[in-house]
User: Fold Signal transduction histidine kinase internal region domain-containing protein from Dyadobacter psychrotolerans.
Amino acid sequence: MDRNDGYFGNINKFLFYKSVPERIRKHLVFWMIFLLFHFTWFIPLYIKGKLTQQVILLYILNYLRYIPMYYLTIYIYQLLSSWLRGVMLFFASFAGLLITIHFFTYLMYLALHLKFGISSVVEPYKYYGELYLLPIHHFKPVDFIVFLYDFQETQLLILPIGIKMVKFGLRQKEKEKEGLQHELKALRSQLSPHFVFNLINSAYRHVLPVSKKAASYLGRIAAVLRLTLYNNDTEFVGLSHEWQSLNEYVDLESKREGDRLHQRIHLEGEIQDFQLVPNMLLLTLVENAFKHGVYSNGYPCWLSVRMTVKEQNLRFIISNSKPSTFETDKTDIVSGIGLANVKRRVELHFAGNYSMDISETIHNYTVDLTIPFITN
Assistant:
């Protein structure tokens, strides 16, 4: 059964929040209920006429300290979970909880001492307060009972911390499951290019005796696929790799179109090994130009690519001839899937730190893209 269905779905909705405001709201509700429940101790004291300013402050400080104790303990657990697992993580986290309780309890009694004087605080808080404020090197053997009190205080944090631990456990299992799925996907993606290349090689051997030109074309297809498919799961690639893929693709399409296509590719500047760009970003722009400026045009056409490499950024300008007759809608040409993909990717990667201008004249379309390099 899926974790989002039925009984498990209700638990999932309770434990996992869809937004930060929802998380804050549920935490506030929990602590309000926690405090109101424990402040019911005021009722019998009020009836007996023993509800003094000191008692009110003592109870407020006593239960308010559980809030920072909880969040600090969770932070310690998250910190330790990066290095420890299993039993070691449990005992280290529990030790962190005891230290946290002792620290905030000490602060509570220090505040009471500064306000009223610890000797005038009601029992049994006077006794424990004197122990907490006593320097440890003055402890008698019986005074170490104060640490047993820290252990006793953990009972009120068992519920909220227990819920949090369950959430961490469920999240960890989800991450492990996702990791396995990604690994299987990666293994399948490695097999897919291998299978494609085997098919191309088989076709190459059969076509070669019939037509060397067709066999050569198949060989160029394999070269382009090798450059693109084997890096399909890589988010960033070297600029040199992207430039090589682009040239291989243009050369392949030029052979297909023959003399009908006039293409010009120009590189200005020097490509460095440490310069990275989003994988297939530039290649997508070239493919888009062929799709809308070359394939849809039965007449002589042209393609121009100019890439300028500077120290910190890259400028890529691609222009293609505009079809004299349209078989596709204009909005599809200017706002097709290819360009939409590029726009979204550069926005996600560079968050406004880029420029992308798309212009159109009577005779051509131009995309002018400038992005910063992602360095190793």
About this structure: The beta strands are 236-238, 261-268, 275-278, 301-309, 313-321, 355-360, 364-372, 374-375. Confidence is low (pLDDT under 50) at residues 1-9, 326-335. The chain has 14 helices and eight strands.
